[in-house]
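Recap from last week: sequence in, structure out.
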Amino acid sequence: MDHDALNTQIRKCLKQFGVTSQQEIERALEAALAKGSLQGDETLGVRMTLEVDGLELQHTITGELRLDGED
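Predicted structure tokens:
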């Protein structure tokens, strides 16, 4: 196994997931704001689970999205 090539492949995969996840979150937020189900000042819980076929791996990360922009 070529560790450098594997590292590159993992980074490409994570970049793709990150970009597409951001796009999906932005679309869903815009729709919820337009519909009035969100006001734009909420803090939303976020959970993301990573699974890899062929590996016994299930990794869940939790966090928050603060729509008011404050840290």
